[in-house]
Specification:
The chain has 155 residues and is of the alpha+beta class. It is 20% helix and 26% strand. The protein has helices spanning 45-61, 103-116, and strands at 19-24, 35-37, 40-42, 71-79, 95-96, 126-135, 143-150. Strand 2 (35-37) and strand 3 form a beta hairpin.
């Protein structure tokens, strides 16, 4: 499930904004703190594997050069619903997720994967960022929806 809405790149286009939208069938992983060992600092292997595999999913749909301009990023992270919220009396729709790990740590992992995939030159180009965490509907599989916009609105 890797869905893209590609920008209109025709030469007759007068658009100053491009929107890239895609969905990844993976559960988001929080960016951990680096570990320090005898040979220097490193990230835990489970995070490194997650970042590599997620970047490969993103790269599979990306056919352009890396973006090198101010960008807006919007991320919706849908997590599997825990068993304690699977009862009949619990609502069927999505529920806001307020978990132990901070939203900014999840967002950092998504931004790292986008940079590793070669979509952006550097994740510091994201100047306007929003993120939401949800528990999915009952029986809904986890996924991440990412929306990247170019163009800056002055105001």
């Amino acid at each position: 499930m890797n869905c893209w809405r590609s920008p209109d790149l025709s030469s007759t286009s007068t658009r100053t904004e491009m929107v890239f939208s895609f969905s990844l069938p993976v559960e988001c992983k929080s960016c951990p703190r680096p570990r320090h060992g005898r040979h220097g600092s490193y990230m835990p292997s489970d995070y490194t594997k997650w970042k590599r595999s997620t970047a490969a999913l993103i790269r599979s749909g990306w056919k352009l050069d890396p973006l090198d301009q101010p960008l807006t990023l919007s991320v919706d992270m849908v997590f599997s619903r825990p068993k304690r919220l699977q009862r009949k009396k619990d609502p069927d729709g999505r529920l806001p997720r307020m978990a132990k790990a901070d939203t900014d740590n999840y967002l950092k992992s998504v931004m790292d994967a986008i940079e590793t995939a070669g979509v952006v030159r550097n994740d510091s180009l994201f100047w306007n960022v929003s993120a939401r965490q949800w528990y999915g509907r009952k029986e809904e599989k986890p996924y991440i929806t990412i929306l990247i916009s170019t163009g800056v609105q002055h105001g």
